[in-house]
Amino acid sequence: MTSKASPRFSLAALGVIACATAQAGPVTVTQSFALNSLMQGNSSQLSFDLSSFLSGQGLSVANVVSGQVVVHGFSEASYLTSYSEYGGYAQTGVTSHQASYSYYVPGYTCSWCWSYNPGYTQYVNYQVQDTLETRYRDVRHIDNMADSMLVSTGGSSASDTVDTRSASTGGYGNSNYEGAYVRSYDYYGNYSLGHRYNRERDVYEALYGALDTSLSLDAAALLDLRGDGQLGMSIGGTGQFRLQSVQITLDVDTPTVPEPGSLALAGAALAGLVVASRRNRKP
To answer: Mean pLDDT across the stretch 198-227?
Structure first.
């Protein structure tokens, strides 16, 4: 009976050995964090809880095998205002207007001729020539600092610097009256006035634009993440920019599961064991 039972047990053992487990490929998951922080040359230490997020996906932070971090920011123009020197006055127009004045001419009495003149008021009209003079200057709004963002996690870092440049010049505004002075006059009362004005225009120059960095999680970052489920990150830079969002993508191994074919073969092998055992117990 031993020689007959031996093949049955060999078949059953083969079925058990064939019931090997198969490991599924890594699952890729992404979590985004919306931020609205104004960075002004300072550095911020941030920590992102990924353990709860992975647990909600049926995954474990201990099974994270790789990952990537993408940080988005934007640098707006932060203008400093200055004024250029005025240029010299330039003649910008000539006009004229009529002016007048009056004076009293006293009368007189002639005693020897028995006559009397009561006097009178004399009115004089004359032309005044007006010369318009204007000087100009620029009101400069400048931001020529190339703002940059630096992101560090684990032992790795990445940075980005703005490179969008803009420049524009507006038109001159209204004339601002400064005052008048006498340019010339003559014996007859005619004279010329100089009227002075100034005008300004706005000039803009700026460096601005998006700040985007991307870096892969190195061994130190993965060790930190697996330890407590928190991913630490440092974000800083130069100049002024607004931190907008952080996106973290992780590749996570799933738990090992038996292959369906192996499960069927294991079931058949176990059934063979049961049948063989019962037959061996018969007289």
So the answer is: 95
pLDDT of residue 153: 96
Rounded to 5 degrees, φ, ψ at 9 are -65, -35
Residue type, 241: F
Instruction: Report in angstroms the alpha-carbon separations of 166 from 112, 139, 169, 207.
Output: 92, 16, 11, 7
Nearest to 219 by CA among 26, 64, 71: 64
Verdict on whether the full-model pTM lies above 0.85: no
Residue 204 has what pLDDT?
97
pLDDT of residue 258: 52
Pairing type for strands 115-143 and 191-216 reads: parallel
